[in-house]
Amino acid sequence: MATQTLATASTASPLTAADPHRFPDLPAFPTDIQTAPLHRPTYRNFVALRKSLKGEQLLNEANQFFDLGPKLYDLRREELQKYDYKNRGSYIEYKGFGNAVVDEHGNLDWNEFYNMTFSTFHPTPFSHPQVIYDHDELIKSYIKHSHALVTTILSHLNTHLHLPPNTLQKLHRLTSPSGDQIRVIKSPPQPVSDRRTALGKHTDFGSITLLFNRLGGLQILPPPSLTLEDHKPQWTYVKPIPSHCIVNHGDSMVKFTRGVLRSNIHRVVSPPGEQACHTRYSVFYFSRANDEVILKGLGRGDVILRAKDGEEESINSKD
Ligand SMILES: O=C(O)CCC(=O)C(=O)O
Ligand SMILES: [Fe+2]
């Protein structure tokens, strides 16, 4: 993963007080905590992104998911458990609070989440809470706008990897079945005496993740190449920035590029400083290659061909 931020706001300086997308009613990220350096697009790319992508709509819709989160989780865990995906043989819908182990000591996670896909509104034997149906237009529109941003990112990567035109984009068509999904995570404040990992260390599955969050807590483990000689990589916070999303490369991009692109290790801990007393929501778009795509080195394009060949297992995107 390269951790990048992409500005989608209309102003050159999205951090000004006039920015309508600054985080309402939340304490600021502490100024004395070191954060990971992030790459931002050049001003030219920033303007191009805004023009081509309806960036304002994407931001507005992401904000609406931050309003949907509390409405969904106000249904309470007992009710949401009816939609638990572990009983459904899929990753769509609800993951209950504390259902996953986060570390080698067997500690459990400190979050619950709900996954939504395009197929959320297709006829299936499984229903959703009414609040999801009430937001069907938002969910469909957010998938469309997020996918447009992912396509723009893939097209930049395609160019810089010297791949034949549209190679990456063709593996990620919105019109073909894939595991693309929206996720809304809720992590309530942790007890003062027991603040710990809320989501265990991992790399993202899939190709590109777009992540909006407002409170700190996300940490990355920098790769050795970005760590001082004779030092161990240290968990480092990623600071949420208004009107920006964080872009992760997932494991499929590592496969497609034979390791030219990396998927970085990250985790979520209790938010720092005063932020720890607030409920943390995050809003995601996980993009994955179309179901039938075999996850292996693309093998065309001199940048990838120069990468070392490794053993490749054959697995398709759906699995
Ligand atoms: O909540 C966050 O900031 C990150 C969560 C995450 O990494 C994930 O769900 O894959
Ligand atoms: Fe992640």
Automatic annotation (TrEMBL):
Residues 1-21 are annotated as: Disordered. InterPro entries: IPNS-like_FE2OG_OXY (IPR044861), IPNS-like_sf (IPR027443), Iron_ascorbate_oxido_reductase (IPR050231), Oxoglu/Fe-dep_dioxygenase_dom (IPR005123). It comes from the Eukaryota. The keyword Oxidoreductase applies. Residues 1-18 have a biased composition (Low complexity). Pfam families: 2OG-FeII_Oxy. GO terms for molecular function: metal ion binding; oxidoreductase activity. Residues 178-289 form the Fe2OG dioxygenase domain. Keywords: Iron, Metal-binding, Oxidoreductase. Belongs to the iron/ascorbate-dependent oxidoreductase family. This is Fe2OG dioxygenase domain-containing protein.
